[in-house]
Amino acid sequence: EAARKLGVIDFSDRSISDPAGDFAELYLYGANFAEKVYSLYRGPKDPELLGRAQVYLKRIGISLLVDSFITDKISFKKAKSIFDKVARP
Question: What percent of the chain is modeled with pLDDT above 90?
């Protein structure tokens, strides 16, 4: 059986920044997924990277809640659903 490969390409920001920000969004697909990608990640690693990613993930949830009040891009119900998912430890 051929080995399956996973690749992540990030063109969204085109900036040099903390890779933990990208890993935060991977946590939306589950901790196992984010940790699997991290195990395959060949970029710079440090012991706090995944911890920072989880903090950034909580920040995403809070930002979505705020956005639901000031824009029509996301409903409060959807933002709350995402917040509840990411706010749990």
Answer: 33
CA distance to 51, 52, 54, 79, per residue, from 89 (Å): 11, 13, 9, 18
Rounded to 10 degrees, the C-alpha dihedral 44/47/52/55 comes to 150
Closest CA to 8 of 44, 34, 32: 34
- 3-state percent breakdown (helix, strand, coil) of the chain, nearest 5: 60, 0, 40
pTM of the full predicted structure? Answer: 0.70
For 40-57, how does the pLDDT look when each residue is reduced to its tens digit (9 = 90+)?
888 888 899 999 999 999
Task: Tell me what pLDDT residue 30 has.
Answer: 86
Rounded CA-CA distance 83/64 in Å is: 8
Provide the terminal-to-terminal Cα distance of the chain, rounded to the nearest Å.
37
User: Is the separation of the CB atoms in 59 and 52 below 8 Å?
Assistant: no
Confidence of residue 32 (pLDDT cuts 50, 70, 90): very high
